[in-house]
Write a structure and sequence with these properties.
By secondary structure, the chain is of the alpha/beta class. Helices cover about 30% and strands about 15% of the residues. It contains 8 helices and 12 strands. Helix 4 (about 145-155) links the parallel strand 6 (about 135-140) and strand 7. It starts with a strand and ends in a 15-residue tail after the last helix. The chain binds NADP nicotinamide-adenine-dinucleotide phosphate. NADP nicotinamide-adenine-dinucleotide phosphate binds near residues 166, 196 and 202.
């Protein structure tokens, strides 16, 4: 019997208990899945950190911690975690993110906000949007989520430029990496979508200097993490007209404080960290797959590089 502790808020247990039991059964895993155990009996922890940072020291036979979240910035520096930490890569989550990012990019591309705001009985002369191929869209981060979004935008014919830490190549887009690569990715970009993890190396990656590289009147879409953007520089760029609008799903402090200027800024759309969420059914299959690999002595999937922070 494999002992699996579910260490996440009670609302997650309600969502996950049945899908996890079904996924374990389907994968042929005989697991005792519970929300309470003597720590020294636990083989795997299924974990979400919003129940608080855990002390894994008493978990003496633990084989892996399987995160329900894709972003692991609150887990990577837990000194008591000495076994592999696997982040969530879930195709349900990826599909949601692709829908959200392409939806925001198309909204900006088609100029939908101006029509929503001008539904007042006045027929104004206007021009249709250019073709997507004439818009440069930059995707910062080409991991599980960023690459899927970049591919979807490329399939819509946008001129997609992606940026990652390591060199990549993908048909239908231009891939950049490193400091020089960031300049090339951002230069003249009409829209930038951020899908980087929150690490010391990515903090304020989109600062005043880099926003100035974008095409005047550009747009920002941030479903990554709040610290990726210098907030004051963003407000200044919106006020000066260098940027036309930003849709922000994630913030340095969540929930976004009521008095924060983003709430009332006419060029900011705030969404409450809903761009994409892990789907219990598909995520449970990923967790079961990792338990199968662990029991077979095979390498786990989606292991976090603790030194890199993601
Ligand atoms: P991932 O697979 O780990 O990909 C991260 C990407 O960022 C990789 O391409 C990586 O480059 C790149 N990167 C990391 N550090 C970098 C640096 N210093 N310079 C340049 N590129 C760097 O992560 P993911 O699954 O795509 O998720 C991305 C983020 O989305 C998560 O960390 C989380 O914060 C956020 N997220 C948000 C929501 C939401 O609802 N808003 C939901 C899920 C996730 P390499 O490819 O070279 O390693």
């Amino acid at each position: 019997m494999i002992n699996v502790l579910f260490l996440a808020p009670p609302k997650n247990w309600v969502q996950y208990e049945a899908p996890l039991r079904a996924a374990f059964a389907k994968a042929g895993i005989h697991a005792d899945l519970r929300v309470e155990f003597d720590p020294s009996d636990v083989d795997y922890v299924v974990y979400a950190p919003n129940g608080g940072q855990a002390d894994f020291t008493p978990f003496t036979k633990l084989k892996a911690v399987l995160s329900l979240w894709a972003g692991v910035e609150t887990m990577v520096d837990n000194p008591s975690l000495r076994v592999p930490l696997c982040r969530m890569v879930d195709h349900g989550l990826t599909e949601s993110m692709v829908e959200w990012v392409t939806g925001q990019v198309l909204r900006y591309h088609l100029g939908m906000d101006q029509f929503v705001a001008a539904q007042d009985g006045v027929w104004r002369a206007g021009t249709a949007a250019p073709l997507a191929r004439d818009r440069k869209v930059c995707v910062l981060g080409l991991g599980a989520l960023g690459m899927a979004c970049a591919k979807a935008l490329s399939a819509l014919n946008f001129d997609v430029h992606g940026w990652a830490r390591s060199a990549k190549s993908c048909e239908g887009m231009t891939c950049h990496f490193g400091e020089d690569g960031l300049r090339g990715a951002l230069s003249g970009a009409d829209m930038v979508a951020l899908l980087l993890p929150d690490t010391p190396a990515t903090e304020n990656v989109l600062n005043a200097e880099r926003m100035a590289l974008m095409a005047k009147g550009g747009f920002i879409v941030n479903p990554g993490r709040g610290p990726l953007i210098d907030d004051d520089a963003l407000l200044a760029a919106l006020d000066s007209g260098q940027l036309a609008h930003a849709t922000l799903d994630v913030f340095r402090i969540e929930p976004l404080p009521e008095a924060h200027p983003f709430w009332v800024h006419p060029k900011v759309t705030v969404t409450p960290h809903i761009a994409a969420e892990t789907k219990a059914t598909t995520a449970s299959e990923v967790i079961a797959q990792n338990v199968v690999l662990g029991e077979a002595g095979e390498p786990f999937l989606h292991v976090v590089d603790r030194a890199a922070g993601y």
